[in-house]
Every structure is written in C-alpha cells, then in structure tokens.
Amino acid sequence: MMDFLYFPDNKMEYIPAVISLLFFMALSFITYRYFKKNSEKEAIKMKAFEEEVMKRIQEEQ
Asked: Residue 3: helix, strand or coil by DSSP?
C-alpha cells in the first residue's frame, strides 16, 4: 500500500540523516544570527543618519 515510505530495519542508517540535519540546523542558526546582528547595526546607523537629517532640516528653517 505505502511502498514509497522506507523505514530501515537497521537503525544505524538514521545516523547520517541526523548528522546532516544537525549540521544544517546549526548553519541556519548561524546565518540567522548574522542577519539579525547586521540588521541591528544597520538600524543604529539609520537612526543616527535620520537624526542628522532632522537636525539639518531644523537648522534650515
């Protein structure tokens, strides 16, 4: 009936799948942290730029 499902009798065959799963989960977490840290730095830069622009606008008035 469900010939497309394969569950190995030898449980040792799961080890490479678990290792690759853990590897890609760690890689995705590292990538997530990189983008989060980078976006926080960019937000700080943008806030400083916005304050500078607002200061210039107020000086012109």
From this structure: coil
Task: Say whether pLDDT at 7 is over 90.
Answer: no
Contact 14, 8 (CB under 8 A): yes
In order, the DSSP letters of 6-36 are ---SSGGGHHHHHHHHHHHHHHHHHHHHHHH
Q: Which two tokens stand for residue 20?
A: 């690759």
CA 26 – CA 34 distance, rounded (Å):
12
Question: Using CA atoms, how far apart are residues 20 and 24, in angstroms rounded to an integer?
Answer: 6
Q: How confident is the model at residue 4 (pLDDT cuts 50, 70, 90)?
A: confident
Nearest in space to 41 (alpha carbons), one of 52, 30, 51, 49: 49
